[in-house]
Amino acid sequence: NSNRMALLPLLASTPKGDKILMSETNLTDYPAMFLKNDGQGGITAVFPRLPLEFGEDGDRSLKILKEANCIARTAGKRSYPWRYFVITDDDRKLIENTLSYRLAEKNVIENTSWIKPGLASWEWWNGATPYGPDVDFKAGCNLDTYKYFIDFASHYGVEYIVMDEGWAMNTRNPYKPNPSVDIHELIRYGKEKNVG
């Protein structure tokens, strides 16, 4: 579809088996570059204008009603995004590549001791509906289901669970809590099971 856009990174393979990774970094307070089919077997860069006004466009989407005459408003004295390529015939080089980190702006968080990387289980992948002989409750966005995910994470050494949109009553009103989910109880239960 020539009207659809994609975000970076893009990984392409050549007929000879080489890999070409196109990505970007240092996007703090600046828009990403989009890619679009050029209609001739290639891609072209797209830089949408800065949105000024939005309107509703479905459950999880907004449509742009008004745009500025620029792609961003930002301080002139700054580092701008880098776009870069990695070309290799060895897939391991894609993982070993550190260009994104080396080109990005320096970390501005002074104390990073609170950041604890780790694995996460995400209920969205299965629609918050686990099933099987050990599921003896009604699965869905409710307290029992999220406790089940915490138990799973604890049992398999997964440090975190990601709670997507189940904490809210619906996606159109994220400030109204889901009465079937007790966030405070889930936090307490997660701490008891060493799951964040």
UniProtKB/TrEMBL annotation:
Pfam families: GH97_N, Glyco_hydro_97. Residues 124-195 form the Glycosyl-hydrolase 97 catalytic domain. One of its GO terms (molecular function) is carbohydrate binding. InterPro entries: Aldolase_TIM, GH, GH-type_carb-bd, GH97_catalytic, GH97_N, Glycosyl_hydrolase_97. Residues 6-105 form the Glycosyl-hydrolase 97 N-terminal domain. This is Alpha-glucosidase. It comes from human gut metagenome.
